[in-house]
Specification:
Number of domains of chain A: 1
CATH topology of the largest domain in chain B: Arp2/3 complex 21 kDa subunit ARPC3
Structural class of chain A: mainly alpha
Oligomer: heterodimer
Order of helices and strands of chain B: HEEHHHHHHHHHHHHHHHHH
CATH class of chain A: Mainly Alpha
CATH architecture of chain A: Orthogonal Bundle
Number of domains of chain B: 2
Radius of gyration of chain B: 28 Å
Number of helices of chain B: 18
Largest sheet of chain A: none
Order of helices and strands of chain A: HHHHHHHHHHH
Largest interface: A-B, 47 and 55 residues
Distance between the termini of chain B: 68 Å
Strand content of chain A: under 5%
Number of strands of chain A: 0
Helix content of chain A: 55-70%
CATH class of the largest domain in chain B: Mainly Alpha
Distance between the termini of chain A: 45 Å
Chain lengths: 226, 382
Amino acid sequence: MHLVTLVVLLAASAATISLALYVFVYLPRVAEKKYREAMLAFSTAVELRFPSHRGLSDRVSRLSVAVGMELGLSRKRLLDLELAATLRDIGLCSVPYALMNERPRQTWSAEELRTYDRHGEVSGAMLELVPRLAHLAPIVRNHHTEFASAEPVSGVLRSQIPLEAFILSAVTEYVRSANLQGQLLARETLSMEAGTKHDPRVVQALLRVLPSVRVGSAYTEEAVRA
Amino acid sequence: MHGEVSSPVPLALLATLVVTALGAEMAAVGASARGNRFALTGAYLAAISCFWNPVAALLTAVAAVVLSGSLRRLSAGRVAVKAGAAGAASLVASLAMGFLPGEARTGESAPIGAILFMAVYGAVGHVVMGLARRAPGSWREAFRRVSPLHLAAYVLAGPLVAVLARDRLTWVVPFTLVPVWAFRLGLMRRDHLAETYYDTITALTLMLQRAHPYTQAHLDRVARTAELVAQQLGLSERRAELVRTAAVLHDIGKIAVDENVLDKPGPLTHEERTHVEKHPLWGAMILSPIQEFKDLVPWIRSHHERPDGTGYPDRLSGGAIPVESKIIAVVDAFDAMTGGDRNYRAPMSQEEAILELKRCTRTQFDEAVVEAFSQVLSEATA
């Protein structure tokens, strides 16, 4: 084989290997970094509008990913779950500022409660307008759908609701409840609502991961990267 | 040393080159919003033209485009235009090769001939497509997107196929499609990644729109005009585009502002004013985690600063305020004055608003920016 041919073949082989590393190693890392930056921006926006949500997104994201891992979701689905956890409340921007920040929920009228309850639907509708986030809409839209009501009564078939939505539902409820009444009572409430309000598989997974997950630690991020 | 190869070229090699050329055309990826595509088909056409004949290269170019267009379900008209451009490009590239010595086509320097063929083929193809679509500038857009990755692929693919054809390594030729398809995947994933940037902007503006529904049209107008003013002031094209993005996002901090305060008719209390005046700071906080927005963050933070130092949030003055912030401030104020923003004030006419801007130069607005804005406005209304 001629020397020039050999050099060109070697250069082409090196270029192909570099290209493969670029496509399969470098670009996915950059993509994940960009997603995480965007997630931080979205959660900052929601937390600035509603200071009572400060830290909530982060805790829900980490715990949701831990539950997703326990349930054997793929890496891609875990990243989507984390993104959906961050974006689930972007529809809260349509809830009046004063309602969320200046009046306790117990004083809300039925109409105000309905406005709040629509935020999942609004978040879903907003995501549908963003091509690369539209696939998260069904998760976000149903992140407050009750497991038992997700049957013909509500018009939404349970099988059509992604597992990720039920994970978000249970985790959000647990984190909120733990903030209000402490972790022990929150776990007890969660167990009682398995099969009615929450997917029993998710509740079992959540109860299994809770002892090993310090919510707010870097556990899940490291675990996802592993 | 290899001289010009004069032994007959095996039919199997020629057939393989034609088939791989078709495969390479299938791996083309979009190079511009106007439909120009970037492919490495030229590498195979160069070898066909040099080792067989230019007519075979021309027919292969046309066949590849027709096949690819049919598979992508393009209209017959579009396929015809693309095929014509590919055929013309192949012909011109082959003619250009005629000026080279035989040694540079099929001999020792065949790699150089292949690079020349690909360069001419790519350039002529894009220019002909631009002319055919009556969008002669579209080739500039395509060439602007040429990155080191494109150049590396171009410089490698042509010589690779040329030496394989010259040395009659027929069996290796199909393997050249591996890097070609990896290259395609790389470009597609990179473009996909770039779209994340726009998705983030869209999602954030949707959040703002939900919180304050009146702002979207205002943002669109301010963004468009701010870019024109940036160009008028001599900022680079890239910087002007960033100004446009910053203008779209300049009020993103208002997500955290109480809409009752923002829409309050009449003067604000001290507490309310303090609340509203935090929005540039909050905008910077929201955008600062995103690396791609790092240039925009200071502009957004400072878009309510004033040359006389009485603005907010940092009370910067004169030259300490980025020109991009000054542009947004002027365009934003003009749009608000002419009725685009606050619906409780009687909107001013454009002439009145310009006079008001000029009255406030040196105190509230930058003189040069107001001047550039006036020119943009007069050109737009001329």
